[in-house]
Write the structure tokens for this entry.
Amino acid sequence: MVGELLWIWRRMIENGIEPNLFTYNFMMDVLVNSMCIESAERVFDVMEKGIVRPDVVTYNIMIKGYCKSGKTRDAKGKLREMEMKRVGPDKITYLTLIQACYSEEDIASCMSLFNEMVEKRLEIPSHAYSLVISGLVKEGKCYEGFAIFDCMVKNGCKANVAIHTALIDALAKSGNGEEAMKFFERMKDEGCEPDDVTYGVIVNCLCKTGKLDLALEYLKFGHEKNIRVNAVVYSSIIDGLGKGGRVDEAEKLYEEMLDKGCTPDSYCYNTLIDAFTKCGKIDEAVTLFKRMEDVGCDQTVYTYTILINGLFKEHKTDKALEMWDMMIDKGITPTPASFRALSIGLCLSGKVARACKVLDELASMGVIPETAFEDMIHVLCKAGHVKEACELADGIVDRDHETPGRVRTVLIDALRKAGNVDLALKLMQSQIGIQYDRWGSIKTRDKFRNLFES
């Protein structure tokens, strides 16, 4: 009843009754919790000009209001105002600001505020440690995160499961799988019980380090302990099994996932589709792709890229082109990786002109990699299609582009290996009129020299 509250306050002022500090703070808190930030500001201004001045609680309420409304800069301004007016900020002040900065991924400000707390010898709550450590490890600053953790332990503050999990995840992602497992054991020894997120991180770590059997054991252990196993955990193991060539086991685990009522996400489908395409089970991959559409799971650009690449490897060029057209029709913007899969597939299928046409169509979208022509020429040369590679290089010149030195090197090397020395020399001689510093790399000139000497 904010309107009635403000009416009573005005009546008090009109009747010469000065509200006390408790009344003001109570009223400010109600206004902030009701997201009436402007009204709270007006009450705060009245306090500053009146007899009852704002205290640390008043400032904390106002800072909370600014943070809730996304005005973090104003909240920081209130902190500096407190210091100017000699109102000492407390742990609530800093925790509120650290939380807001963390939400905005401003980890530098989190660290700055944390350091202020240390300098002022304020008690640092466990949640503040958790936010700072999580923020640091998210930015890949694993060692800095552990430094804060050591500081936390030294100050007698017990780390919660979220802090332990964040550090385990940081170690795993930085390639220190063994250290991650040791820290996991330390966590259990210290009496901190892992939760479903922790087990998910551990399983993911084991899969990335190739310890798939141990990951499966942890999955089984989770079921026995009634720990909720989510799609991320299943997807990690399915991905590991697929990359390890154990596709049948990955498929069985996918079926188990469905039986237990765990809904696969795009990542899970993509990992299994990728596993199918890599072992030549392209029909199963396409079936899974259609199932994604049936259950309403988003087919991402990565999904299409995997299938296009797989279909080209199985020499199903028309199906790959259908998949590409379907992706474009759905309004999914191609990435450089998806274009690379299409262009290389077309080139190896002898459809160089089609690849160039797609390149021209997508040039305006800004998704074509700078090395697109170079990649295509390199693939053609590697596959022995030297003639097509030369034609593509001519096409670059026709588009008013100079053939890059690296491309000339690839072409000359391919021509030499194919025994077509005359054409290699011709390509070299066509460059004689170009200034020396535009001949390409030293490697290119060495190829020219070797041709002459032979």
Q: What stands out?
A: The CA atoms of residues 290 and 299 lie 10 Å apart.
